[in-house]
Amino acid sequence: MGTPPMPQTPIRVMLVDDQALLRTGFRMVLAAQPDMEVVAEAGDGAEALDVLRATTADVVLMDVRMPRLDGVEATRRICAAGPAAPKVLILTTFDLDEYAFSGLKAGASGFMLKDVPPSELLSAIRSVHSGDAVVAPSTTRRLLDRFSPMLPSGTPEPERKEIGRLTEREREVLLLVAQGLSNGEIAGRLFVSEATVKTHVGRILTKLGLRDRVQVVVLAYETGLVRAGGGPAAG
């Protein structure tokens, strides 16, 4: 995926984390960028919701495990405001990966690890701001392997009837997206151009009524199209 163009006006970022030292570190990294500004901070989800009532942010960097109101519920409430709501980028750690799944279901546009290199964090913020979902393929595969057994129900939800409208190729692309492959990797696997893959992904989102490829991943695991371990379900 190419680097999104820098916006003409700075991306307004809010930092939500109960560790002040981490917020300071993120603020220093973001403050050095000409296309970003930190407009607010909060130490937990409840404070974040209060601050957002009086502050306009484009992207919220959201920790998941916080006192009073965790990042998952805060994300759900923020995203419930509709298209005008800021994009939420979940920050997680390997030992808390199961929280990321709930965050994605709640409407987050993606997730990053807290120890991610600064350049990747900045790229993720720009991508989310431009409307893309941040699903790092290698991290996605590890994450899904971990949280799939932790899904609330041991029985997959019934396959959505909309999936039946997908062509055979679109279904194939959906499964590869759900396994964490990037558009470039899918193009190589299917021997087609990356532009063709992007077109297929767009049609999949439209037919299934999904916002982005993050929701494709969630849907595929919930319906049992993909099993824990990253492969397509048997049958």
Describe the structure.
- With 235 residues, the chain is α/β, with parallel strands linked by helices.
- The protein is built from ten helices and five strands.
- It has a five-stranded parallel sheet, with helices on both faces.
- Strand 4, helix 4 (97-105) and strand 5 (110-113) form a beta-alpha-beta unit.
- Helix 3 packs parallel to helix 4 and helix 7 (168-178) packs across helix 10.
- The two termini are 33 Å apart.
- The model has no long low-confidence stretch (mean pLDDT 81).
Descriptive labels:
globular; 45% helix; 235 residues; 5-stranded parallel β-sheet; alpha/beta
How far apart are the first and last residues' alpha carbons, in Å? 33 Å
What structural class do you assign from the helix and strand content? Answer: alpha/beta
**Secondary-structure element series:** EHEHEHEHEHHHHHH
CA-atom Rg in angstroms:
18 Å
Helix content: 40-55%
Number of strands: 5
Low-confidence stretches: none
Strand content: 5-15%
Largest sheet at a glance? 5 strands, parallel
Principal-axes shape call? globular
Question: What order do the strands of the largest sheet run in, or round the barrel if closed?
Answer: 2-1-3-4-5
Number of helices: 10
Output mean pLDDT: 81
SSE arrangement:
Blueprint: E1 11-16, H1 20-31, E2 36-42, H2 45-52, E3 59-63, H3 71-79, E4 87-92, H4 97-105, E5 110-113, H5 118-129, H6 137-147, H7 168-178, H8 183-190, H9 194-208, H10 213-222
Parallel strand pairs: 1-2, 1-3, 3-4, 4-5
Helix pairs in contact: 2-3, 3-4, 4-6, 7-9, 7-10, 8-9
